[in-house]
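Methods — Computational structure assignment.
A single polypeptide chain was analysed. Its primary sequence is given first, followed by the predicted tertiary structure written as structure tokens.
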Amino acid sequence: RSSAEVFGHAYPGSLLREVPVAGILGDQQAATFGQAAFEAGASKNTYGTGNFLIVNTGEQIVASQHGLLTTVAYRLGDEAPRYALEGSVAVTGSLVQWLRDNLGLISSSGEVETLAASVPDNGGAHIVPAFSGLFAPYWRPDARGAIVGLTRFITRAHIARAALESTAFQTREVLDAADGEIPVPIAELRVDGGMTGNELLMQFQADILGIPVVRPRIIESHPHPRLGR
């Protein structure tokens, strides 16, 4: 069925008073639609407590060989359905919360950018935030987190920078997996979610991907499209 048609009406006695329910999509598919990622090869990545990447594969169903999930993106009217590859990263924004709540390195999540920007690089420190295993493209529930490359030179600023960089590196792994499975090269990455307000992270993401990272004025795309939740 189409993602945009009347599926039913709200209960007459409810606050919605028989308002038609005229659209349905999962939250990440809705974010993809909200980002206008309509063409094959168009991609969006949501940066929240975790990251969620969707790459439009057009009318082609791509059975992933690299650890991604095949999903329906959307369908409009009588048009053919549009399909996508989806990859999720378990720990990104929640890693910043961990720095705040568990380690006390920052007092608010917003401080992480200023702290990370106070050093020119990560000083050789890297974080693998496998707090609940690794999701796409590895799917290793037995994996555990690690901080490596520590020396006496490392400060909390280097740890903060390594935390942000781990988000970008994990995103690249998922995007590289998708890029190897679709015939159309991924030319840009459209982004949304709370972490996209972090300029340092977004610039680093663009640098290691080698493609533009496009951020909308409204960074929370997934609740906004009319075909949303």
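Note: The chain is about 25% helix and 20% strand.
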